[in-house]
Design goal:
25% strand; alpha+beta
Length: 115
């Protein structure tokens, strides 16, 4: 059968008391499924060992809410992130355009101050 799929997809998911974590890897032509499974496993271990509260996919979703909390509660919300992607950096810029806030980054901590 002809398909656009590169082969396999491996996903690892762990359910904890209050959170669900996951990692995945997409197969590549000519790469054994076992190697793709190992890749997914290594990504999963990296996620489990990271002390960040927000991963690279979640942090950009939280940024606007951090701005709102800062303005409405006159507080300084902060969160530890694993990676700040270009998408997250753009979301910081956009949030700063709409709200009187300024985001600051200290190593792996993102905080938001009301101006």
């Amino acid at each position: 059968t002809k398909t656009d799929s590169a082969g396999c997809f491996i996903q690892a998911i762990a359910f904890f008391e209050e959170v669900c974590l996951g990692a995945d890897a997409l197969g590549e032509r000519g790469v054994p499924a076992e190697d793709i499974g190992k890749k997914a496993g290594m990504v999963f271990i990296k996620i489990l060992k990271n002390p960040a509260a927000a991963d690279r996919y979640m942090i950009d979703q939280i940024i606007p809410f951090m701005g709102l909390v800062s303005v409405l509660n006159n507080s300084v919300p902060k969160i530890r992130f694993s990676e700040l992607t270009f998408h997250s950096q753009t979301n910081i810029w956009v949030t700063e355009q709409f709200l009187p806030v300024k985001f600051e980054i200290f190593e792996d901590i993102l905080l938001c101050r009301k101006l």
